[in-house]
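Bench notes, afternoon.
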Amino acid sequence: MSRAQLSRIGVGFVFLLALVLRLHVLLSTVYLWDEDRDFIPIARSISWSHLPIREFQHPLLPAYFIRASSLLLGETIFSFRFPSLVAGMVTILAAYVLVNRWSGRAAAIGTVLLMGCNEYLIGVSILAVEKAYYLCFAMLGILAFDTFLRTSKPRWLYCAAAAAGCGMLSKELTVFVLFAFFLTLLFSPARHWLWRKEPYLALALFLLVISPDLIWNLGAHSNEVMGYQEHLSRMKPSGNLQVFVFYGREAMRFLAPSIGTRLFDAAPEFASMNFGLGWIVLVGVAVMTFRKADVTSRLLLFLFWPVVIFFTLVESRSASLLIDPTVWFWFDLSLLAAIPLASRWLFEGTGWMLRSLPTAGCVYAVYSAVVMHMGLPQAAVAMDPESVYVLNGRSVPVRAVFLTCMLCPSTQAKLESRRVIELGGGELDPDKSSGLEGNYDQFQLKVAPDAGSIYTAYRLTYRFEFGPVATAQVAVRPGPPGWKPKFWAGDSSPRN
């Protein structure tokens, strides 16, 4: 068997590994809050008479993909998540093409391994949320722009603008990709293009693609939905170390007590990459930063550093409890640049130590994915409803619904113990609390007379047999009774 054939087999193997890992996680986990309460209900509401542009925090292009998939494949956990799986694999393919052309097949295979076995990318690639889509469009835009720089063919510039526009319709952070395009043109031999019409036609195409969202932002809209102005107004100058949480959450959690602080993790439900892989990637970026840059490394560095610097120097401050605080996954766009840069560094080393780094890095990437697989949650508890409006002094029934995944061996979830913890101005009505009944644990929540308008939440602490302790919570606000949740209304049994 020739070397070329072995190389092709290696490429196919790493792509298959990435796909199998994602497919198994897709089928082996229950819905995340953002899926179950945001994107899936919005997607299910889309019709010819209702074509929403933006809801709550972000534009809704991902919801249209979710809706299309559910219409074709039915409303199942697989159909809701399938477009994210496709987007995740396309992201890896685009990165492979970019690095193969730039650094050769060895570095390209390393990129596929580092992306395909990355815990964070595995996690977001199978969720029915916006992250997989905007990362996919961003990577496609980077590939198209790099092709433009190499070929000087304007059609690739227009493709990059269109991809960036689609990314902006998925999540606003894609604007950093557009900024990287501009900086690359400004500080490279290609700067003469700034005196030609093509870059400005591409900008016009970008604005045309995002025009529905632009028009929405320029018009009057509900205060409950965040637009560009609301996102910018909550960003305040400050400083944080969330970039190190993104690239090594477990290490930061271990180190925080030793320096007299506590790790703030605003997104514990999302998987993060292991610190070994994350910090190898950061070292690779640091090394590539001080090397003589070619056109591709300059493009990637102009994406990585603005994202990291901006979100390190700001924090989110909002009076609303529903708005995310400063959160580590804001740095995820930098990963699209960091992994190709690190792969080039790893696979261009000289000497025994540096030559061993690619193998060590790849083995560690596979190890991290296996560890993630072994710790997958196969069941969870969700409150039904998770938010209620009830008058002071009145009781309202709430169910704890036990959800199971598609590959779980049983639909029966057994609890060893349960406990309801009061978090706000309310109380549990013990006289009306019932025990475990099949897949439901129903109890009564009662809002205290002095609760006023205080945000009240009750948390159910539970543990499945041989499983870790976990929590689910229900929010209670004083107000008129009778409010119905969007996605849980009418459900009578746990859903796959």
